[in-house]
Amino acid sequence: MEQELADWGKAIVLEAKGRRSGLPRRVTIGFAESGDDLLVAASSESTHWSRNLDAEPDCHVELRGVRRSCRAQRLTGADAEAAVVALILKYGTPAERLGGGPAFRLSPA
């Protein structure tokens, strides 16, 4: 089901290198589009995928059947807040826990 969500454009499959294992780790998460970039946010500082991006910002994203290489940039201040607002507006109430963790801009590598 998670892969279908990415194929339909409802979510992305993010693949990042595990910060301890060095192995590829995949997670399906919500996103908002900002031009060619994607915005994502975690609900907690301890979210594994966000900690992996902090350790190694090079990652891969699958969306609508296309896999692409990206580089994550951790957002701060007004940029992070704008990313969280975009996600809440896109996904509604279930996204309200966002904002407790980091937000990232995923740009094509």
Description of the molecule:
- The longest helix has 15 residues, at 77-91.
- 28% of the residues are buried.
- Helix content is 28%, strand content 39%.
- A hairpin with a 2-residue loop joins strand 5 (58-63) and strand 6 (66-75).
- It is an alpha+beta fold.
- The radius of gyration is 13 Å and the shape is globular.
- The protein has helices at 2-8, 48-55, 77-91, and strands at 12-17, 24-29, 32-34, 37-41, 58-63, 66-75, 103-108.
- It has a seven-stranded antiparallel beta sheet, with helices on both faces.
- The protein is built from three helices and seven strands; from the N terminus they run H-E-E-E-E-H-E-E-H-E.
- The mean pLDDT is 91.
Layout of secondary structure:
Layout (H helix, E strand, L loop, with lengths): L1 H7 L3 E6 L6 E6 L2 E3 L2 E5 L6 H8 L2 E6 L2 E10 L1 H15 L11 E6 L1
